[in-house]
Amino acid sequence: GNYVLVIHGGAGTILKKNMTPEKETQYRAALEQALKAGYAKIQEGKSSLDAVQAAVNILEDNPLFNAGKGAVFTHDGKNEMDASIMNGKTLEAGAVAGVTTIKNPINAARAVMEKSEHVMMAGRGAEAFAKEAGCEIVDPSYFYTEDRWKGLQKALKEDSMKAKLDHSFNNKLGIINIDNKFG
Amino acid sequence: TVGAVALDKSGNLAAATSTGGMTNKKYGRIGDSPIIGAGTYANNNTVAVSGTGWGEFFIRTVVGYDVSALMEYKKDPVSKAAQTVIDKVGKLGGDGGLIALDKDGNMAMPFNTEGMYRGAITKDGKIEIYIYK
Fold this sequence. Notes:
Radius of gyration of chain A: 17 Å
Number of strands of chain A: 4
Shape of chain B: globular
Mean pLDDT of chain B: 97
Order of helices and strands of chain B: EEEEHHHEEEE
Number of helices of chain B: 3
Structural class of chain B: alpha+beta
Largest sheet of chain B: 4 strands, antiparallel
Number of strands of chain B: 8
Low-confidence stretches of chain B: none
Helix content of chain A: 25-40%
Distance between the termini of chain A: 31 Å
Order of helices and strands of chain A: EHHEEHEHH
Mean pLDDT of chain A: 90
Oligomer: heterodimer
Structural class of chain A: alpha+beta
Strand content of chain A: 5-15%
Shape of chain A: globular
Strand content of chain B: 25-35%
């Protein structure tokens, strides 16, 4: 094997016929930017943790993807994010769940791993810890994007009780029926 | 959901996953992304894994750890282990995909959906990016 970094930006109903050339170019550019950011860390002799964090930060900051800025909305119109990281050398791990104010949740997950005795923190406690650990805190409005807001409105209109998966429709169980990338 | 797995010059693996969850979710629902062993897993003896898809199914199939276990106990190569696990998810009715990178620099990016935004880079900087099947 010759690979040093692999990334993903979500899976689902992603068909060429539904993609404009401009949009595809944007996705490819974002993925390339993330790969280059992680690869630069590896080339500098930094750890694989630094590499995955750098790559994920790029994707979190890009509203095309359902993480960080561009996260999808909950039923209540909020952005609630989750993240985790794991060190293959030590089997140490860190995670945050249901956070709403941490600009880059993966940074908070790493802080949980390296600066606490715990593996997972959730909600307001995770946000308070992240702030103390030096993670950047933002107003929840930072995560707002119009496309995701429209996605929620569409989901509410279709069936206010059902959660919608990332970017899928007409799946095998027939529960989720959307034709856009929702996350 | 986004994720990354990496192998550094010291031979150490790491995995990371970050997500906004599901549109219209209620009641503080949490998916697989922050669950170690489900959405994210890394072990220097085997593989680093990050998943994306229908979280409930990824939790129930313990996706990340299952890929590692198949490699550790059954000596499956990463490509076979990763595909086996995605097939398990599919059989339950879940959809999505994962990325996996083993300790020797072999990778796999299986998915059972129409597409998955994905990419990889080699030791010498060669970039591969794919979106569709």
